[in-house]
Amino acid sequence: MGGTRFFFVNGAEALLRTLVAADVDVCFANPGTSEMHFVAALDRVPGMRAVLGLFEGVVTGMADGYARMAGKPPVTLLHLGPGLANGLANLHNARRAASPIVNVVGDHAVTHAQYDAPLASDVVGFARPVSAWVHSAVSARTVGADTARAVQAARQYPGQIATLILPADVAWNEGASPAAALAPVGPADVSADAVAAAVAAVRSAGSRAAILMRGQALQDRGLRAAGRIAAATGARLLCDTFAPRLARGAGRVAVERLPYFAEQLVESLSTIEHLIIVGSKPPVSFFAYPGKPGWCTPEGAAITYLAHAHEDGVAGLEAVAAEFSAKPAPVELVLPDEPEGPLNQFTIGQVVARHLPENAIVSDEGATNSLGPGLALATARPHDHLSLTGGSIGQGLPLAGGAAVACPDRKVVCLHGDGGAMYTVQSLWTQARENLDVTTIIFSNRAYSILQIELSRTGARDLLGEGDDKALSMFDLSNPDLDWVQLAGGMGVSAVRVHDVAEFSSAFRSAMNQRGPRLIEAVL
Amino acid sequence: MGGTRFFFVNGAEALLRTLVAADVDVCFANPGTSEMHFVAALDRVPGMRAVLGLFEGVVTGMADGYARMAGKPPVTLLHLGPGLANGLANLHNARRAASPIVNVVGDHAVTHAQYDAPLASDVVGFARPVSAWVHSAVSARTVGADTARAVQAARQYPGQIATLILPADVAWNEGASPAAALAPVGPADVSADAVAAAVAAVRSAGSRAAILMRGQALQDRGLRAAGRIAAATGARLLCDTFAPRLARGAGRVAVERLPYFAEQLVESLSTIEHLIIVGSKPPVSFFAYPGKPGWCTPEGAAITYLAHAHEDGVAGLEAVAAEFSAKPAPVELVLPDEPEGPLNQFTIGQVVARHLPENAIVSDEGATNSLGPGLALATARPHDHLSLTGGSIGQGLPLAGGAAVACPDRKVVCLHGDGGAMYTVQSLWTQARENLDVTTIIFSNRAYSILQIELSRTGARDLLGEGDDKALSMFDLSNPDLDWVQLAGGMGVSAVRVHDVAEFSSAFRSAMNQRGPRLIEAVL
Question: N or C: which end of chain A has fewer CB within 10 A?
Fold first, then answer.
């Protein structure tokens, strides 16, 4: 890339060539007028795939799914402050997933900012809450260098969101040159003291020790090391309720996913005397409730950080494992029988587990219907499980799409609650357009079912008025019922509605035997 | 309200009672777990209507439409930082419309903030770019007072966005009391000097003077005063391309809507020697373009601010008009004939203008297809016209819904481009649920047509690669075509697709003769 220093182009082209040189080669986009020169550069510069989303929450959600599966950043292209704003919720989820993403947000020309035109806004202000790195480019001459820094920031271990604001005149002005890729900041070494503390902890506490993992530790190398420790000492292996990515199924080392509700979380951790953290944080309840605990680790339990999120948790686990000679006990393949009985999350889970192909990717925003598939999939064929890291619903559909872009040879199955799926329903159109190999299962219970539960758990149900269903109507998605067959058909995705297990099984098997997007509305 | 000082309830109920006491009586909501006590209070406290939206951009867009038509603030209920984030783009539009809105954003309990749970985020950071007033409540004892201040801030003339963040424990804790409404800050007086300058300007410049109006000035009293000035002096009456609300049609005073594109804007203003501003700003181009002007008022033209946005523009116009004795010339009713020829924005506009009932509300996000209806509606039956104030597409559908909530006895017609309509397509579900009297016309050109135009206008079309349609594919909404009949049907709104003028006219007349939501996909 040294020669490119003398290669003058416009700012947009320099930006794009810098991205491609840094191995950023997929752009999830929803452009507008201020991004026209970026779009033209997409056409001219080889090596960048462009994937259109019809709403920015789709764009950023796809970027997150891509980043989790590709292990490298994509770039998003967003239209000024409001375009970025539409993508913020899924950037919140991506931030919690530590997904590396470079956002390029077009803005008014630097010379136009003085006029406070209708679309002018505080773009930096919108970007800051989700971005580890924010910069507004000021000149075509420096935008190549800015871009290299943005990619470096996104790649800082374990992954961050970097937002580069690109004023229109910076994009169209000439005199720019691409910049060479910068070396990203890799994981920091774990400390020898932390390794020694973890070794001592698993030796002394045995099955009363637990290792709570996140990030790379939940992939093959990390899991094998953790499995050796568990086999030798009896230590439990845990992951967060919402881990960004977890390798699961036959041949892998089993990890317990922590439960969602605080009282179950407390119960699950009640025997722990020593909690060893690898890339995660001590478990807390997802929400606070009157009179219930927020902190869920037992009082008196010791906590050791074997690896903070920015440290090399895999190496840490391997260093601990090196003290033991046991072999990990891999999960054996056990496929459920074809189920009978009513259509519910458990029978659906059994069908999915029975027929899920090897190396599939499961994007799970099943919400109150995630437990059934989660149980059944534990011993299914090996697969990756992606979950709702930041709790902002409307992530599962685009996450599935982005994963399919990253891994075109792997089947993607998306498990989704109906309420959450409506947030980024436009995702289905991109699935159709790109012929992404995603099968979506909508759990159609026609309610914000989690909120019906939470109304009681927060104590608010006791405070309702009499004979007035105004509160309950806020969680009711019937009146009218959503018709997912029509919604999917309206965006070019073929869909079917099923009411019993036999219909569901037939539809799911059919989807597994074909390529391309399908949707199954499972009426519960 | 004095007695309520001694009336102790929980924080959520105090908040809600304070809102109702301040005449805020519609809540557009998309709640989550942290808002359960607010939802329970909705049930218990009389006087607050609750309208559910399946996505927060729908919620905030409806709030804007309601505020523009009701002339008073609604409240939104949003779920933590990401829920607010999903609503930001339409809050940007609402900010540009000077719509009074109170946002209540639930947050984690104050005691839970220390744990950085998955949904924790910088809520104040998300709120700031769109909010004139932001406050995070810290105690049930003070949340009533906080709420009164929030409403006061929203009502500050001409209207602002106030965001009150409500931690879950502030909502559920007892010991709160409602607060009495505070007097809002009304419009400031215009200065006598400004009135004198405006009088002199219209006297001396005559038809080379123009009065550019926004806000209240575009309603009946303001228009009558402006019409007297125009009748006496020949001064032109202008409004911005995207005025929040404009009273139009027969019996009203005609106002020229400024064109969108900069060169047309420059041409339109080329004869102006004196520009008089009432609640607006000097016109600038919507975007910047290489080598084209951003500032569109002729060099050398004088500019007088008769009224800044926070001043009483109506009184200012009346003070100027008092110097003259002419009567305004009202628009005469001229309805187009039933058109023949191809289905396009002009024939659609003629049908709409011919059959639009008196006192209808037109929510216009027609984008490249707005001109035809705009021309034809100029002499139609009197109606209100609402437009895309902040330029962030995806506003028209929820704006129409909110207007229908505010004005249940008026027919609402929504003109919408297909690309923009996808952003907040979930709006249709709320229309069906609440049986809102909205007829939506989708201009189905299966493209981001404005961007196809802007690609040339920015000069970027000349920079495309050869034989590569990657850039053009970013503006193409075919492959697959969106099927609006299925999309609407999937959300309970009956819809029809039309391909010619006769079909369109039949569908539109039918919709005008019935109540409730309808959608017409006009394939162009």
Answer: N
Q: ∠ CA(A458), CA(A462), CA(A463), 5° rounding?
A: 95
The fourth-level CATH superfamily of domain A2-172 is Thiamin diphosphate (ThDP)-binding fold, Pyr/PP domains (3.40.50.970)
Verify whether the Cβ–Cβ distance B392 to A487 is below 8 Å.
Answer: no
CB contact under 8 A, A465 and B44: yes
Residue ranges matching CATH 3.40.50.1220 in chain B = 192-321
Assess whether pLDDT exceeds 80 at residue B3. no
Helix (H) or strand (E) holding A20: helix A11-21
User: Which H/E stretch holds residue B413?
Assistant: strand B412-417
Amino acid at A362: V
A25 touches chain B (CB under 8 A): no
pLDDT, average across residues B441-463: 93
For residue B5, pLDDT beyond 60: no
- Whether B82 contacts chain A with CB within 8 A: yes
Q: How far apart are the first and last CA of chain B?
A: 57
Is B111 touching A (CB cutoff 8 A)?
A: yes
A41 CB near a chain B CB, below 8 Å?
Answer: yes
Q: Does domain B192-321 have CATH number 3.40.50.140?
A: no
DSSP SS3 for A24: coil
**Spatial CB neighbours of B470, under 8 Å, sequence gap ≥ 6:** A42, A43, A50
User: Where, residue-wise, is CATH 3.40.50.970 in chain B?
Assistant: 2-172, 345-450+467-523
The dotted CATH code for A345-455+468-523 is 3.40.50.970
What ipTM goes with this model?
0.97
Q: Do A281 and B460 touch (CB under 8 A)?
A: no
> Residue A468 has what pLDDT?
65
For residue B290, the distance in angstroms to the closest alpha carbon of chain A comes to 7
**pTM above threshold 0.95:** yes
Beta-bridge mates of residue A194: none
Residues A312/A278, Cβ–Cβ less than 8 Å: no
Note if the bond before B100 is cis, omega within 30 degrees. Answer: no
Which CATH architecture describes the domain B345-450+467-523?
3-Layer(aba) Sandwich (3.40)
Chain A, window 261-280: residues with a beta carbon less than 8 angstroms from a chain B beta carbon: none
Contacts with A10 from chain B: Cβ below 8 Å = 463
Q: Is A34 on the interface with B (CB under 8 A)?
A: yes
Cβ of B3 under 8 Å from any chain A Cβ? no
Query: For testing the chain A interface, which of B33, B96, B450, B494 should be mutated: the one with the most A CBs within 10 Å?
Result: B33
A207 with A235: CB under 8 angstroms?
yes
Among A81, A423, A454, select the one facing B92 at the smallest CB separation: A81
What confidence score (pLDDT) does residue A2 get?
45
Pure H helices in B476-522: 484-490, 501-512
- Dist CA A91 CA A101 (whole Å): 9
What is d(CA A228, CA A384) in angstroms, rounded to the nearest whole number? 21
Hey, how many other C-beta atoms are within 10 angstroms of the C-beta on B410? 17
Looking at residue B2, what is its pLDDT? 45
Choose among A288, A433, A469: nearest Cβ to B169. Answer: A288
Among A41, A125, A288, the residue with its CB nearest the CB of B112 is A288
